[in-house]
Automatic annotation (TrEMBL):
Gene source species: Halopiger aswanensis
Matching SUPFAM superfamilies: Quinoprotein alcohol dehydrogenase-like
Protein's recorded name: Putative pyrroloquinoline-quinone binding quinoprotein
Pfam families attached to this UniProt entry: PQQ_2
Origin organism lineage: Archaea, Methanobacteriati, Methanobacteriota, Stenosarchaea group, Halobacteria
Residues covered by the Pyrrolo-quinoline quinone repeat domain: 75-240
Length: 440
């Protein structure tokens, strides 16, 4: 594999404009759960915060080659719960005057009700709201991990439809249970169909032709025992399923649809897969499989995958040991991004160095917001790293705090920085801010 390192490249630094998002508790040495969200369109950048506030900023100043957007707020709303996911519905027909009057910003919540709400992209007026707790159940314990959680959103501009996956966790002694529902919402918020299981969904991706929806399931402890389900988008009926066939309840970390193929990041065996129609295996690659390091068997989870035009990129996460909860060792392929061609031949790889909460993509552009590496506490890992899917590293922008959310659309890149306080030095680094720039 052509092993590159974006840290030794001359950075093609983007010129960011930044705005404060207020206050949030600093992250610690270990990465925290998803607390922020950002989404970019050609019209605006929307930032979702842990306190529920969602602000849409004008992105028009990015046009005409400007690299320093003004970020004037268009509107602000208070989502009823933690705003942890955002998608946009840019309907194909638009308004009669060519404006974005028919467009919407859809916000996913984590809270008592697991609320999904759609807001008018021009005004912020709420169009509809749905409480997923009516399907997955209400929390049985006052803890963030027990709250109903809308983990993923996908939209289809051709139909005006929004797809969502929600889950709820509960534990009784040693027994762990998940309750989950995948939804198709019409543009007015009407539920077209539901697909319910007792497993934990983690990712959605829609085929470009709108016919299929891939759902990745991370934990399978009940009757539902497969990591990937491909649904017929019109009806919600299962078309085919796939599973890594491994022991334990860990199955899939992420899915990405590319034409008739589906790329899968497998938590079960720590490999990456490209599947054809019906789940036929085209190829698989070792990503962070169990490896002996100084007498310990270490592994890392492939957490993210993105496929486009016959190329696939995978991102791995933290090192874990098979026989112990703690380890000072590091898997040689932890915190890396690796890309492959249509035949599974390596194209390039690079060290992302810190934990990547989510991989943002648009066409062949990739954005990896990198947070802390809790085993090697180094503030230089706090960065937004940018890649071309075909050729590799493009640039890197470092933050004082940790980068926990990213977005890219057309020539706009956006990221959210959260403050971090490592447990062993007492210093708080960074602040809670949104950063936006135009790319050349």
């Amino acid at each position: 594999m052509a092993d590159t390192d974006s840290d030794v490249l001359d950075d093609r630094a983007a010129e960011f404009t930044s705005v404060s998002l207020g206050e949030i508790e600093p992250a610690r040495s270990r990465h925290m759960w998803t607390r922020s969200a950002v989404h970019a369109t050609d019209e605006l950048v929307a930032a979702g915060q842990w306190n529920g506030s969602v602000v849409a900023y004008e992105a028009g100043a990015l046009e005409g080659g400007s690299s320093a957007p003004d970020l004037e707020p268009r509107w602000t709303v208070n989502h009823p719960e933690h705003a942890v996911g955002i998608a946009s519905l840019e309907e194909a027909d638009g308004g009669d005057d060519g404006s974005d009057d028919s467009d919407a910003i859809v916000v996913a919540g984590r809270g008592e009700t697991g609320a999904i709400a759609a807001y008018d992209a021009a005004t912020g007026d709420r169009r509809w709201r749905y409480e997923t707790a009516s399907d997955v159940g209400k929390p049985v314990k006052d803890s963030v991990f027990y709250l109903p959680y809308v983990v993923a959103l996908e939209s289809d501009p051709a139909t005006g439809r929004v797809y969502a996956a929600a889950r709820r966790y509960e534990r009784d002694g040693e027994t762990r249970r998940w309750h989950s529902t995948v939804y198709a919402f019409e543009s007015d918020g009407t539920v077209r169909w539901r697909y319910e299981t007792d497993a934990s969904p983690i990712a959605l991706d829609r085929a470009d032709d709108g016919d299929r929806l891939a759902v990745g399931y991370n934990r399978c402890t009940g009757d539902h025992d497969v990591g990937l389900v491909v649904l017929e988008a019109e009806s919600g009926d299962p078309l085919w399923t796939w599973d890594p066939g491994t022991e334990g309840d860990r199955r899939v970390g992420d899915v990405s649809v590319d034409g008739e193929q589906v790329a899968v990041a497998s938590h079960g065996d720590k490999r990456g897969y490209l599947l054809g129609p019906g789940g036929a295996e085209r190829w698989r690659v070792d990503l962070a499989v169990p490896t002996d390091v100084d007498g310990e068997t270490l592994y890392a989870y492939p957490n993210h995958v993105y496929a486009n035009d016959g190329r696939v990129a995978f991102v791995t996460g933290n090192t874990y040991a098979e026989e112990s909860r703690e380890t000072e060792g590091r898997h040689p392929n932890e915190h890396r991004i690796a890309a492959f061609d249509a035949e599974g031949t390596p194209l390039w790889d690079d060290a992302v160095r810190g934990f990547v909460h989510g991989l943002a993509a648009d066409g062949d552009r990739l954005v990896a917001p990198c947070a802390q590496n809790f085993r090697v506490r180094d503030p230089d890992t706090h960065a937004v790293r940018r890649y071309d899917l075909e050729s590799g590293p493009v640039g890197r922008e470092r933050f004082d705090g940790v980068a926990t959310a990213g977005a890219v659309a057309d020539d706009t890149v956006a990221a959210i920085e959260e403050p971090v306080a490592y447990h062993d030095d007492g210093e708080t680094r960074g602040t809670y801010r949104l950063h936006v720039a135009a790319l050349e």
